[in-house]
Amino acid sequence: MCEKLDLLADIEGMEVMEMLEHATFDSVSPGICMTPGCTYTTEVEPDQGHGWCEECNKGTVMSALMLAGII
Question: Helix 2-12 crosses helix 16-24 at what angle (to 10 degrees)?
């Protein structure tokens, strides 16, 4: 999971801790598809664990805060 968190932060143009800090104080969070090989990202609710991936057509998107174990 750490690999996906690092990838998401890179896509967002931030360090992981910076991205998590922003997401903690916002009403939305960056999210990434957890399917291996898929790099689909979108904004999701901070507690999202099964958001919809437009590429995989599955509920596999997880928020950064869920991925980091903060929520």
Answer: 80
